[in-house]
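Worked Example 4.2. Consider the chain below.
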Amino acid sequence: TLLRKYRDSDQLVVKASFFLPMIFGTIFHELCKGKDDDTVIYESPINMIIEQDNEQYLICGTPDEIRKGEKLIDNKTAVVMNLNYPTREEYIYQLNIYRFMLEEADVFDAKGMILELRYFLKDWSANQAARGGDYPKSQIQYKQVPVMSVIDVSEYIKHRIRDHTNNPDRLCTPEERNLGKVAYKVYMPGRIKAKLASYRDEKGKRCDIETLGKAQELMAGLPAKDRAKAYIEKITEDMKCRHYCMVRSVCPYAQENHYAK
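Applying the procedure from the previous section yields the following structure tokens:
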């Protein structure tokens, strides 16, 4: 990987600001941690050895919360609108791999466990919740994750191992670079916060601005003095690449597409 390749070089630059998007997640994890007892364990590292093509590979993970014989819980941060979208595939694989590892180790009564995501909604509003409707009543929300078969999970792990061993220098795919769907926002020069980031549909439900045409329509409704200066930016494409990757300073794709201008 690029991190391993450039770990000891001056080309790899990891700034403190790179970690800012992770702060909410770290704080939320700490708030959810409790004291281990006979029924629940928090952030307990697990690992297993996978043999493939005459090689051994160590698979490691740290489930956020294991309720013995009952469920596995992983903590995530999100915004309210994320609840309207299907669960990210990477989250489904993550929890199913944890369950698979526990089953293989025959610990914590893993067979039969359900899988659950615990979301902290960063933009949740108590005032909005009080108005009723389908707005979340609490800043903490739960969502179950479908359980995959042991065969499907095993094949996925083997696929990922082959991908890393056969193509160690390949660039990330579009799916790996993105974090969420493409959306648009309307900004004013010199302002960090967007002038328009969403809109309400005919039912009063707040929605992302998912097309350039919708963004242009909303911008056209601004006062003339603002409309003359406003500009539209596509903001979520490559979000993972731009805001979460630790090797962006040495990645050819990131440098060419996001930092060369």
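The chain is about 30% helix and 20% strand. The longest strand covers residues 71-78. Compare this with Example 4.1 before moving on.
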